[in-house]
Amino acid sequence: MIQIYADGSIVYDSRLDGYEILGCVVTSCLNKGGVAEITLPPSHPHYSTFVSYKTLVEIYRDDDLKFRGRALYPTDDWAGRRKITCEGELCFLRDSVILPYVYQDTPANIFTALITEHNSQADSFKEFVVGSVTVTDPNDYIRLESEYPKTTLEVIEDLIDRCGGYITFATVETDRTISWVESLSAASTQQIRLGSNLMNIVRSDENTDLATRIYPLGAKNGDGVRLTIEAVNGDVAYIEDATAVTLRGVISKAVLWDDVTVAANLLTKAQAYLAASKLMITSLEVSAVDLSLADSSIDIFELGDLVTVVSEEHDLSDAFLLTSRTEDLLDPKGSYIELGKDKKSLVGSDVAGDRQSASDLEKTVQVIKANYELNIADAIEEATTTLQSLIQQTSDAITLEVSETYATNGDLTEYVGTQIQQLSDAVTITFTNLTTMVNANNAAANAEFAEIQQYIRFVDGDIILGESGNTITLRIENDKISFLDNGGEVAYFSENKLVVLDANFLSSLQIGNFAFVPRQNGNLSLVKVG
Fold it and tell me: Are residues 131 and 179 in contact, defined by beta-carbon separation less than 8 angstroms?
């Protein structure tokens, strides 16, 4: 069941007629606002309901809130179909401003002060109650300062950059709460494994903030001059890593710490920063199948879950954080998730020659399929197709094999193959349709196989068609088409005539304009029908 509300009014309910929509895609991300796109036909009763930057949009699936945010802007195509783009509720924090400020307190107190200031400026539906704050600092004291005004969201992003953690939302009674938590430790019991639901892996390297030389700057003194490290670093204003410089060259970066007033402390922070900034981030892109849609007992992936990815072939066995999820609620074959975890090293995967397109997170892409009508998962859609061909020659035969493998986004994998084998006296073509069904009652998703074979054979210039295990075959000769049962001819076409060994007509037999038609008393009559 899918429901969409605009300012509390129902816009779409999958159970109701007259409220049909053309599309609904929701993307949610950790520490980002998220996006929803709703596409309406011109005839929809709420076609003009959405007010840009004002209308509160809520999207539910089975009473679970999938998205909360506001409408941004409409886009109409040539047919008048309107796509409403919406941004998530974290973006509400862009609507309030923190004037030039100096915060010197615990992370929790600063966060609470920021939300309080936001609420004082925001519309009622944009207000939040502070929930749990578990993020701390080693000294439980930080300093945030800016000479220029910033939005509340920008300041909170500065807090996250400084202390880490994740922003989460929840509804407690009638209040919408915002929390800042140090970690998200919920672990999904569903794994992504090679040979089960893992379909593909691509490795890539990147670090968009790579630096091999750091110029650290601290707080300003009374004359407005910032603290540097020359006094504790041999009159040199920067630090660098010699090994990284040899490998990458000199890549300089200035880094600012407004709350550092001691040169030795500034040097320590710069050294820690350089240790991380010189490293490459190795990432993985993994295609997978969500087995929970075939078996309701298997754990469903949720945003913030730790998901274990296992592939012995790729020397991979690790837990990854689910950082992003895109759900197409009307056409779920377009849905996927992303898992992220930084793996940093000085050389990355360059030494192994694994250079792929860059990415700052390790990503796992999973195609998920669900049809929510009547809450039943529908037929599994195609996800990927792999084509293979093989030619083998032996002393007595030449075999050509062509196969096509469908890796699907639910509980089905299908294999279609053709084999042509040429012997000294015959050519046999075998078609194989191999279907692997994930057992919906087995959490381990063991495969069950069903195989159907058909064949075409070329013997002595004739074509023979039939199905493996079936006694009935069809032989096509140069001037004759024969039907065979257990190898014996029971009927054939030849010289514009059909010859049948035995015939049984259940209703009538018509010859030209006359037909033999059984009477109700059991007799047979010859009547004119044309």
Answer: yes
Total domains in the chain come to 4
Residue of 113, 126, 130 whose CA lies nearest to 170 = 130
User: For residue 292, is it left (φ>0), alpha (ψ between -120 and 50) or beta?
Assistant: alpha
Determine if the pTM surpasses 0.90: no
Q: Say whether both 393 and 468 belong to one domain.
A: yes
Same domain for 470 and 389? yes
Question: If the chain, 530 residues long, is cut into consecutive pieces of 10 residues, what is the mean pLDDT of each piece?
Answer: 93 89 91 93 92 94 91 91 95 95 93 96 95 88 89 94 91 93 80 66 67 91 91 93 86 88 91 80 57 67 79 72 81 70 50 30 33 34 46 56 48 51 56 42 37 57 71 82 84 84 76 74 70
3-state secondary structure 382-398: EEEEEEEEEEEECCCCE
Verify that 170 and 251 share a domain, yes or no.
no
Residue 482 shares a structural domain with residue 388: yes
Instruction: State residue 357 phi and psi, 5-degree precision.
Output: -65, 145
Structural domain of 84 = 2-90
Q: Is residue 63 domain-resident?
A: yes
